[in-house]
C-alpha cells in the first residue's frame, strides 16, 4: 500500500528531473551560441579598430587630414570644425595665412565700403558644394575654372584637362556671384566656403607680360593695349608698331602701369590688376588662401574639405616655361630704381596682405 502510494510521486520527481536536465542542456546550448557570437563580434570589432588606427597613422605620416562626412554639413562647417583639431601642417599653414591677412587688413585699411555687383564679378559660385572661388588671372585660374566646371556641370564634364582652355573662360559656363540678388549674395557670402589663390606679385606681373605681349597669337591685347603703350611711352615709334602694338618692351609696360593717366582712364586689366582690387580680401572673409607656390597641396586640401575630391582632381602642371623669381629678376635688370619703387608702391598691398617678401633684386633705396 505504501509502495502504491509512493510510486506516482517518484514518477513525478523523475519527470521533473528529466525536464530540468533538458532545460539545463538548452541553456548551455544557448549560452554556447551567445558566447560564439560574442567572440565573432569581438573579433570583427578588433579588426575594424586596428584598421582605423592604421589609417590614422598613415594619414599623419602622409600629412593628410581625414574629414568625416556628415549629412547636410557644408564645407564651411567642415573647415571650422576641423580647424579646432589642427590635424595637419597644411591646415595650420592656411590658418596662419588667414590670421595674417585679417591682421594686415585691420592695420592698413580704415574705410569700409559696401560691395557692388562689379566687385563680385570674379567670384565663381558652386551651389552644389557651397563654394565661392575668386579667380585671379595668372594664378592657375584656367585649371581652377576647369575644376569648377566639373563640379558644377552635372556630369557634363568629368576630366578638367579635357576642357579646352578657351572654353574655361567663356562667361556663360560658370556663374558669377554678381548675377544673384542682394539677399542671395549675402546668404552665400555668409554660409559658403570662400577661397582664393595668390602668387608673388612681380612673378605674376612678369607672367602676364610674357603671355600677353610676347606671344604672337595675342593680337587682341596687342591692338587693345600694345598700340596705346607704344604711342604713349616710345620715342619716335615706327608706323608698323603703332598699328600692330606687338613689340611692347617690359620697360614700356612698367611705364604704362605707373603712369597716373592709366588709372584715371579705366581700371587695370584683370591680368595685371592687384589681387586686393579684384577679390577685396579685406571686405570678403576668405577661409582658404591658397598660394601658387604650394598649389598642389593647397588644392588637394580644399577639394577634400569640400567633399569633392572624388569628383575632380586638380591638374598637375608639367609646364617648364612658367615664370620664376629668377626669371622675373632678369626682366627688372633694365628698369631704373626710380620705377622699381613706383611699381612696388603700386603692388605694395598685395605683398603685405599675402606675406610676400620684397624681392632681393628690387632696388628701393
Q: Give average pLDDT, whole number.
A: 85
Number of helices: 15
Strand content: 5-15%
Helix content: 55-70%
Q: How do the SSEs run, as a string of H and E?
A: HHHEEHHEHEHHHHHHEHHH
| Widest β-sheet, arrangement of strands | 3-1-2-4-5
Strand-pairing-aware structural class: mainly alpha
Unreliable stretches covering 5 or more consecutive residues: 1-17, 53-71
Number of strands: 5
Shape: globular
Rounded to an integer, what's the Rg over CA atoms? 33 Å
State the major sheet: 5 strands, mixed
End-to-end distance, in Å?
133 Å
Layout of strands and helices, then pairs:
Elements: H1 2-62, H2 75-83, H3 89-108, E1 123-126, E2 131-134, H4 141-152, H5 165-168, E3 175-176, H6 182-191, E4 193-198, H7 201-213, H8 219-233, H9 239-244, H10 250-258, H11 260-265, H12 275-279, E5 288-291, H13 295-305, H14 325-331, H15 337-353
Helix pairs in contact: 7-14, 8-10, 10-15
Describe this structure as you would to a colleague.
The chain has 365 residues and is mainly alpha-helical. Helices cover 56% and strands 5% of the residues. It contains 15 helices and five strands. The chain has helices at 2-62, 75-83, 89-108, 141-152, 165-168, 182-191, 201-213, 219-233, 239-244, 250-258, 260-265, 275-279, 295-305, 325-331, 337-353, and strands at 123-126, 131-134, 175-176, 193-198, 288-291. It has a five-stranded mixed beta sheet. Strand 1 (123-126) and strand 2 (131-134) form a beta hairpin. Helix 7 (201-213) packs across helix 14 and helix 10 crosses helix 15. The radius of gyration is 33 Å and the shape is globular. The model is unreliable at 1-17 and 53-71 (pLDDT under 50).
Amino acid at each position: 500500500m505504501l509502495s502504491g502510494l509512493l510510486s506516482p510521486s517518484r514518477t513525478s520527481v523523475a519527470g521533473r528531473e528529466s525536464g530540468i536536465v533538458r532545460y539545463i542542456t538548452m541553456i548551455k546550448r544557448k549560452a554556447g551560441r551567445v558566447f560564439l557570437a560574442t567572440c565573432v563580434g569581438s573579433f570583427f570589432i578588433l579588426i575594424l579598430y586596428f584598421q582605423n588606427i592604421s589609417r590614422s597613422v598613415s594619414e599623419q605620416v602622409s600629412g593628410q587630414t581625414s574629414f568625416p562626412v556628415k549629412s547636410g554639413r557644408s564645407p564651411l562647417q567642415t573647415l571650422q570644425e576641423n580647424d579646432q583639431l589642427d590635424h595637419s601642417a597644411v591646415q595650420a599653414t592656411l590658418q596662419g595665412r588667414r590670421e595674417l591677412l585679417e591682421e594686415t587688413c585691420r592695420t592698413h585699411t580704415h574705410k569700409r565700403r559696401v560691395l557692388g555687383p562689379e566687385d563680385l564679378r570674379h567670384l565663381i559660385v558652386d551651389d552644389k558644394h557651397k563654394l565661392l572661388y575668386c579667380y585671379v588671372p595668372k594664378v592657375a585660374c584656367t585649371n581652377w575654372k576647369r575644376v569648377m566646371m566639373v563640379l558644377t556641370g552635372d556630369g557634363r564634364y568629368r576630366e578638367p584637362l579635357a576642357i579646352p582652355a578657351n572654353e574655361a573662360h567663356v562667361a556663360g559656363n560658370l556663374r558669377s556671384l554678381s548675377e544673384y540678388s542682394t539677399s542671395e549674395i549675402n546668404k552665400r557670402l555668409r554660409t559658403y566656403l570662400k577661397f582664393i589663390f595668390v602668387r608673388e606679385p612681380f612673378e605674376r606681373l612678369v607672367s602676364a607680360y610674357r603671355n600677353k605681349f610676347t606671344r604672337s597669337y595675342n593680337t587682341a591685347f596687342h591692338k587693345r593695349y600694345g598700340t596705346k603703350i607704344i604711342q604713349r611711352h616710345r620715342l619716335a615709334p615706327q608706323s608698323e608698331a603703332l598699328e600692330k602694338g606687338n613689340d611692347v618692351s617690359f620697360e614700356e609696360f612698367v611705364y604704362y602701369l605707373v603712369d597716373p593717366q592709366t588709372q584715371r582712364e579705366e581700371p587695370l586689366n584683370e591680368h595685371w590688376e592687384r589681387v586686393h582690387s579684384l577679390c577685396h580680401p579685406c571686405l570678403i572673409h576668405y577661409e582658404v588662401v591658397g598660394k601658387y607656390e604650394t598649389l598642389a597641396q593647397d588644392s588637394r586640401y580644399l577639394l577634400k574639405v569640400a567633399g569633392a575630391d572624388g569628383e575632380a582632381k586638380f591638374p598637375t602642371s608639367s609646364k617648364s616655361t612658367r615664370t620664376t623669381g629668377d626669371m622675373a629678376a632678369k626682366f627688372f635688370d633694365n628698369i631704373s630704381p626710380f620705377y622699381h619703387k613706383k611699381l612696388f608702391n603700386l603692388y605694395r598691398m598685395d605683398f603685405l596682405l599675402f606675406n610676400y617678401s620684397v624681392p632681393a633684386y628690387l632696388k628701393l633705396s
